[in-house]
Structures are given as C-alpha cells and as structure tokens.
Design goal:
Helix content is 80%, strand content 0%. It is mostly helical. It has two domains: 93 residues, RNA polymerase sigma factor, region 2, helix turn helix motif (Rna Polymerase Sigma Factor, Chain: A), CATH 1.10.1740; 74 residues, Winged helix-like DNA-binding domain superfamily/Winged helix DNA-binding domain (Arc Repressor Mutant, subunit A, Orthogonal Bundle). Helix 3 packs across helix 5, helix 6 crosses helix 9 and helix 7 crosses helix 9. It is elongated and about 85 Å long.
Length: 195
C-alpha cells in the first residue's frame, strides 16, 4: 500500500488510522489530521480564547497524536480526537490558572516580606550590603530547620506554598506558619545586631 494509493482513493478515518498504526508513516496521520484541523482549531480557540495559543495547541495536539495513536486502540477517530483536544485545552487552562495563582501568591508574600523588612529599624545605617547579607545568613542559620527550609524555598527558590508542602512533605498550613514565624524570628535576630 503506497501513500499515492491513499490519496487517489477516499479512505475512511479508520482505514487511515489502521494504516498509520501498522506503518508508522506520519504522512498518513497528517492526511487524517488535516480533515479535522479546522475543528481542532475551533475547539482550542473556544477554550483558550487566543488565536496564537489555539494555533500552538493544534501543533501540540498533532505531535501528541503521533505518539498516542501508535499505542492506543481507537474505535471512532473524530469523537476521540474531540475529547483529546478538549482535555488538552482544559489542562492548558489549569496550567495558566496555576501560574497566575502562583504569581499572585508570590507577589502578595513578597509585599508582606518587604513590609516586614522595612519595619526593621537598624541603629547602624552604615551597614554595607555585604554586612547585611552576612547578618541575614547568620540569622537564617539560627532558625529552626523547617522555618529555614520554608523561608529559603519561598524567597530564594520562589516556590509557592503548595510546592513547598509537596517538596518537604509538610501540611500546607504548617508551611504558612513556618514562613510567618521564620520571618518574625529573622526580624528579631537582625534587630538584635543593631542594639
């Protein structure tokens, strides 16, 4: 069976799919995908609400199909493709929401950290940045292990609360508590140097 034979005769989705699965010939998948590309784009545009994102999604879905269809048995291609497309878009939306939530959480915590450090009144205004950094490192070393780990992951590695919770296998509420208490203890420690 040559590719020319498939082009000359109108084959069903299932025939093209079976031929692709047997041969692995990506051109056969391309012929099948081309039939539904406008539908895939429409679904992606409906969910993602952005032309560029929808176009990128179409390409990603095509690449995903090349791998998945070699391993999966698909009864009817069009409904299966719709579900794959919809699920891909929903996962993209979840990623976007997670990134937005993480950015807001970081911004909020960064603001509160800046406010708390602005409240540290040092009698010695002549400290150089290196001296301040040295004091900060010394104070970090004095924190309890969980407080120090949470502070470092949150402020230096820029992980969100949930990522810290997963990374350290600590309850989310405890992560928030360790960060809050750690910031307070850092403030007390740094202020003690200026007394």
């Amino acid at each position: 069976m040559t590719l020319k034979w498939f082009k000359n005769k109108e084959k069903s989705d299932e025939e093209l799919l079976n031929a692709f699965q047997k041969s692995g010939n990506i051109d056969l998948l391309g012929m099948l995908f081309e039939r539904y590309m406008h539908l895939i784009y429409g679904v992606c545009l409906k969910y993602l609400k952005n032309k560029d994102d929808a176009q990128d999604a179409v390409i990603e879905i095509y690449e995903k199909l090349g791998k998945e269809l070699l391993e999966k048995q698909v009864e009817t291609f069009k409904p299966w493709l719709y579900v794959v497309t919809k699920n891909y878009c929903l996962m993209e939306l979840r990623k976007q929401q997670s990134q937005l939530k993480k950015a807001k959480e970081y911004e909020k915590s960064e603001l509160s950290f800046m406010e708390s450090t602005q409240n540290i009144h040092l009698n010695n205004d002549s400290w150089e940045p290196e001296e301040m950094d040295k004091r900060l490192q010394e104070c970090l070393a004095k924190l309890r292990d969980h407080q120090r780990s949470c502070i470092e992951l949150f402020y230096f590695k820029e992980l969100c609360y949930q990522e810290i919770s997963d990374s350290l296998n600590i309850d989310l509420k405890k992560v928030k508590s360790y960060i809050q208490n750690g910031k307070r203890n850092l403030k007390i420690c740094i202020e003690s140097y200026s007394e």
